[in-house]
Amino acid sequence: MNHLLEAWELLIQADTWTGPTGMGARAWEHLLYTVLAVGVSALIALPAGLAVGHFGRGRNLAVLSTGAVRALPTLGVLTLVGLVVGVGLMAPMVALIILAVPSILAGTYSGAESVDPRVVDAARAQGMSRWQILFAVQIPLGLPLIIGGIRLAVLQVVGTAMLAAYVGAGGLGAPLFLGLRTYDYPLLLAASLVVIALAVLLDIAFGTVQRTARRLMRGPA
Amino acid sequence: MGIEFRHVEKTYPDGAQAVRDISFTVPSHTTTVLLGSSGCGKTTLLRMVNRMVDPTGGQLLIDGEDIAGAEPVRLRRSIGYVMQHSGLLPHRRVIDNVATGLRLNGAARGPARSQAEELLELVGLDPALGRRYPDQLSGGQQQRVGVARGLAGDPNILLMDEPFGAVDPLVRLELQQQMKRLQTELRKTVLLVTHDIEEALSLGDQIILLRPGGEIAQAGTAQELLSAPADDFVARFLGVAQGRRRLRTSAGQDGEWVVTDAEGRPLGVVEAPPGPVHPRADPSGSVPPEDGR
Ligand SMILES: Nc1ncnc2c1ncn2[C@@H]1O[C@H](COP(=O)(O)OP(=O)(O)O)[C@@H](O)[C@H]1O
Ligand SMILES: [Mg+2]
């Protein structure tokens, strides 16, 4: 309890946040890592998930491979890739992308699949092309689930991005590992609190976006 | 001219033979009804016309041209399609749903919307409903929107798959009557699928009665089917055999003719009496009817 209080006192001091290695800069780095990892994952997983959902093929493959990838321990991947590419941002990015892809993939193909097949059939019968069906019917109507997948990926990545500091990169893992090594528990706790706050804020933001999408697409409340 | 089915067959990839060797023609500007119980291949036949289903044998010609060579997306944009469940896009306003086909055919948003409003009026809906979303309409209203969407772009051919099957009987009757009114005005080439005999008799200029297994049991006008059923199946299906459609007339008290069923239950009165037609006495006693034959 004492440590927590000290951590709180640390957090309300201005100079904790300032400077190139201050908590502010670290939080910003952390957010950038998260955005980068989730962004690259989305570039991979969105088209793949849409293809699976649209064509209705390759679903088993998608389920199996995402299951297999999910079983990989992130720390193991990080260490392995780190051994190959050395210290820096590369290894944690690969590990985070591997973490995020399955969630986005699963959300995307479930989203595209969730659209009432009769609505898709009607759209086809009206003379919509495959692309038009994808962009005017399946993506908008699947949006709530697609965003749900991204929301989950963000939550996983924001927590796990702590590990970036483990191989010499920055982010909120840096003060955390520093606190761990130097027995500076208030610092360690302060960094954890900031990560938790970041995660909660991002989740609220994505939750709002998801609800808005659901309302606009007239899905179940 | 019209739509010609020539020895058409369909076996689905899973081996189900839905349609075998079917030939008939849907003459232009008339309504042909595909009638039959569930599973006898009606929907399969209907969907061949806009290439939602491709036949595994035979040919399908529209105005003499084999549609096997037509580009499916282009073909579908030129043919109206109305389905049992309206199939409206839930995230688009009613007006934009109706305008979808117009937009696909290249119309700008403004003109497409005003045309869509006219179509809503044509099918008996208040154009103000266009601002709503499909889930804010009743089932009957949604079906009307489906019909309006099918008519958008003024297609020559209208395909209707049990268009009034999912609404309650009263609304169904209303929609059928409206369809008849519309058809006398628009004279589309209509192919309509139903399992409802009344609907077939009331809307079909021609009725193609299918039997299980995907074969034609009999094709003809309502009169031909009722008065000369080709076999037992047709007679049973139409209810002629059970006397459901054997009607009798008998003279009522005030000189009108009462129609009864085979068991003598009264069904209604005939306005023009059977037998020699004679001008009725004019109650006002003034000018005698000029056209009395
Ligand atoms: N996509 C499909 N794949 C396999 N079999 C089908 C498919 N569509 C229809 N069938 C089968 O073909 C037969 C005719 O179906 P359908 O044309 O829908 O009949 P109807 O519209 O008269 O009820 C049925 O036995 C049905 O199970
Ligand atoms: Mg059917």
Structure description:
The complex is a heterodimer of chains A (221) and B (293). With 221 residues, chain A is mostly helical. Chain A has helices at residues 2-11, 14-17, 23-55, 59-70, 74-85, 90-113, 117-125, 130-160, 173-181, 185-216. Chain A has a single domain (2-218), classed as MetI-like fold, CATH 1.10.3720. Chain A is elongated, with a radius of gyration of 20 Å. The mean pLDDT of chain A is 94. With 293 residues, chain B is α/β, with parallel strands linked by helices. Chain B is built from nine helices and 13 strands. Chain B has a six-stranded mixed β-sheet, sandwiched between helices. Chain B has a four-stranded antiparallel β-sheet with strand order 2-1-4-5, covered by helices on one side. A three-stranded antiparallel β-sheet of chain B has the order 11-12-13, with no helix packed on it. The radius of gyration of chain B is 22 Å and the shape is globular. Chains A and B meet through helix 7 and helix 8 of A and helix 2 and helix 3 of B. The complex binds adenosine-5'-diphosphate and magnesium ion (MG). Magnesium ion is lined by residues 42-43, 193 of chain B.
Secondary structure layout:
The complex is a heterodimer of chains A (221) and B (293).
Chain A: H1 2-11, H2 14-17, H3 23-55, H4 59-70, H5 74-85, H6 90-113, H7 117-125, H8 130-160, H9 173-181, H10 185-216
Helix pairs in contact in A: 1-10, 3-6, 3-8, 4-6, 5-6, 6-8, 7-8, 8-10, 9-10
Chain B: E1 3-11, E2 17-26, E3 31-35, H1 42-49, E4 57-62, E5 65-66, H2 72-77, E6 79-82, H3 94-104, H4 109-122, H5 139-151, E7 157-161, H6 169-186, E8 189-194, H7 197-203, E9 206-211, E10 215-220, H8 222-227, H9 232-238, E11 247-251, E12 257-261, E13 266-270
Parallel strand pairs in B: 3-8, 3-9, 6-7, 7-8
Antiparallel strand pairs in B: 1-2, 1-4, 4-5, 9-10, 11-12, 12-13
Helix pairs in contact in B: 3-4, 3-5, 4-5
